Amino acid sequence: MGKITGFLEIDRHDRKYTPVAERVKHFREFVIPLTEKETRDQAARCMNCGIPYCHGTGAVTPGTPGCPVNNQIPDFNDLVYRGDWQEASRNLHSTNNFPDFTGRICPAPCEASCTLNIIESPVTIKTIEFAIVERAWENGWLKPELPAEKTGKKVAIVGSGPAGLACAQQLARTGHEVHVYEKHAKAGGLLRYGIPDFKMEKSVIDRRIAQMEAEGVTFHYNSPVGGSAPGAIDPNELAKQYDAVALTGGSESSRDLPIPGRDLKGIHFAMEFLPQQNRRVSGEPLGGVADILAGDKHVVVIGGGDTGSDCIGTSFRQGAKSVVQLEIMPAPPEHENKGLTWPNWPLKMRTSSSQAEGAERDFAVLTQKFSGTGGKVEKLHCVRVDERFKPLPGTEFEIDADLVLLAMGFVHPTHDGLLKTLGVDLDQRGNVRANTSDFKTSKPNVFSAGDMRRGQSLVVWAIREGRLCARAIDLSLMGKTELPR
Ligand SMILES: Cc1cc2nc3c(=O)[nH]c(=O)nc-3n(C[C@H](O)[C@H](O)[C@H](O)COP(=O)(O)OP(=O)(O)OC[C@H]3O[C@@H](n4cnc5c(N)ncnc54)[C@H](O)[C@@H]3O)c2cc1C
Ligand code: SF4
């Protein structure tokens, strides 16, 4: 259990970032890893709690405390403390296909629910996870895992985000023939085209795709399933050709702001802006769309989540003159009341690395109108709101803007094309209806997981659902399964 007195002797010490002035000059990752000794010291702080909330409850519902993939955190902390990195990697990969993704971009609900968070110094679990997986790659411990025998069953996965990738990897490792259909030129979903390189460089995805190809997964790129785009595949034909189909197409319909002036030039969804920059970094053509760039502009980002932060960091790296971020919610408290919140994820003021690069943030603000001249946006007309989002008279104000990025989340998956053609039932929120025990949609042998089923969420939840969906498919095809829950 780490060092028995470790938590008393060793302070929490986490990875730092390179200075802002340096990191905004490029799009590479900028987190400075801890040394091996520092990481082992941090692992020594783990108390191997009687009830390790960090480890999670196993429930597939949002808001449950701890790790959504149920990483065996106290166990790998102990292995790292003792220097048995290879066994730590085996342990970590037994619950998480892609700790290199989560070790970079997970918000780490495990750390919020760590017992040591009661005194604001949780074990640096995410940093330890990152160190284990990077060491495993460096030492060549992560090899393709081939199945003992083939089952003769064929499964199609639609969408190559973290849910589709986790599902595909689990199914291939248990012997099924797996084909992943992806409408874009490369695999990864939002990991590839949404999340900027400065949070996760894309070579991290590429090495996993190479591992999966060696495990027998076939990727079909530029292959939209449904719709009328050139090369589109008929989803009903796919369902006939395969023994099972998993729909893991994400939640792609952005929430809009239908107010006067919305049609002015210079107002874009975040997911029109971010993928362009990721493509520029990797040298992938933009596909004939006009450049959206923040250089020399006053940028306003509407929406305060991860997507908004990614717009801020990207704008600064493109040379924005200023970035303002507006949030309709009131400013959360600086510190949570641990007695009320722990071990759950607390609502509190968080400052992302991108926000710390110089964004001005404003809360409880509603944008009522955009205005401009010559068809181009120049101003946002805003008003402050009360806790019920009602405008407060006399608090109207204006903000100058040359570029407005809408980052207010996603309402549900795209319905046209794939989902309408297949005719799968949707739930009240417009997501694909399927439960978390058998992941079956209303169509026989068609399953769904990740954001397409649960709505906009996190990478770690997508991995969890992809794994569980693979188990459900295996059980359905074979009548039994040895894949873990
Ligand atoms: C900008 C941004 C930043 C984020 N940052 C974080 C973060 O820091 N940490 C975190 O945990 N989460 C973050 N998230 C959320 C996270 O990325 C998602 O929850 C996660 O990627 C969902 O995984 P998924 O596999 O369900 O779907 P997606 O990642 O959306 O992948 C779906 C894939 O399906 C493909 N597809 C869709 N329809 C079809 C079709 N008809 N035919 C073929 N292919 C199709 C898409 O092209 C895509 O590749 C962020 C989200 C955004 C938008
Ligand atoms: S809650 Fe924290 S201290 Fe307790 S076992 Fe988990 S990581 Fe270790």
Bound molecules: flavin-adenine dinucleotide, iron/sulfur cluster
Total number of helices: 18
Work out the radius of gyration.
23 Å
Unreliably modeled segments: none
State the share of residues found in helices, binned by percent. 25-40%
Largest sheet: 5 strands, parallel
- Distance between the ends: 25 Å
Tell me, rounded to a whole number, the average pLDDT: 96
Shape: globular
Widest beta sheet: strand line-up = 5-4-3-6-17
Task: Give the percentage of residues in beta strands.
Answer: 5-15%
Strand segment tally = 17
By secondary-structure content and strand pairing, the structural class works out as: alpha/beta
Write the layout of secondary structure elements.
Elements: H1 6-9, E1 16-17, H2 20-23, E2 31-32, H3 36-43, H4 73-82, H5 85-93, H6 99-105, H7 109-112, H8 125-138, E3 154-158, H9 162-173, E4 177-181, H10 190-193, H11 203-214, E5 218-220, H12 235-241, E6 244-247, E7 253-254, E8 267-269, H13 270-282, E9 298-302, H14 306-318, E10 322-326, H15 338-341, E11 360-362, E12 365-373, E13 376-384, E14 397-400, E15 403-406, E16 410-412, H16 418-422, E17 446-448, H17 451-454, H18 459-478
Parallel strand pairs: 3-4, 3-6, 4-5, 6-17, 8-15, 9-10, 9-15, 10-11
Antiparallel strand pairs: 1-2, 7-16, 12-13, 13-14
Bound molecules: flavin-adenine dinucleotide and iron/sulfur cluster.
Iron/sulfur cluster binds next to helix 4.
